[in-house]
């Protein structure tokens, strides 16, 4: 299943070394999710502390486990939307096999 995930980061001001450690752990976790094919894309919303991600997970429970593993999870306000393929995005039906010299 595909999901659109909006994550608003509300991490409080922390000592610089602690904040740097958490941010590095977050980047590493995101890399692991990309390597596993779970995090497909990630965008920032300019001028905010919000990110929008396109995730792919077996089901909502698996996605919850993934998101709750984020090092910043305790400070995130997260909304999730399950995605379904729009009919306009579905592949067109295959062309029929016609004998040479004929047309559809």
From TrEMBL:
It holds the Pfam family MIase. It comes from the Bacteria. Residues 1-88 form the Muconolactone isomerase domain. InterPro entries: Dimeric_a/b-barrel (IPR011008), MLI_dom (IPR026029). Transmembrane segments: none annotated. Residues 84-104 are annotated as: Disordered. Residues 90-104 have a biased composition (Pro residues). This is Muconolactone Delta-isomerase. The lineage of its organism: Bacteria, Bacillati, Actinomycetota, Actinomycetes, Micrococcales.
């Amino acid at each position: 299943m595909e999901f659109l995930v909006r994550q608003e980061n509300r991490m409080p001001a922390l000592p610089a070394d602690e904040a740097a450690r958490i941010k590095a752990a977050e980047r590493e976790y995101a890399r692991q999710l990309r390597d596993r094919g779970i995090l497909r894309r990630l965008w920032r919303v300019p001028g905010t502390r919000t990110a929008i991600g396109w995730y792919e997970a077996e089901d909502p429970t698996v996605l919850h486990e993934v998101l709750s593993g984020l090092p910043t999870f305790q400070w995130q306000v997260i909304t999730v939307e399950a995605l379904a393929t729009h009919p306009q995005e579905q592949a067109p039906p295959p062309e029929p096999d016609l004998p040479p010299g004929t047309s559809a």
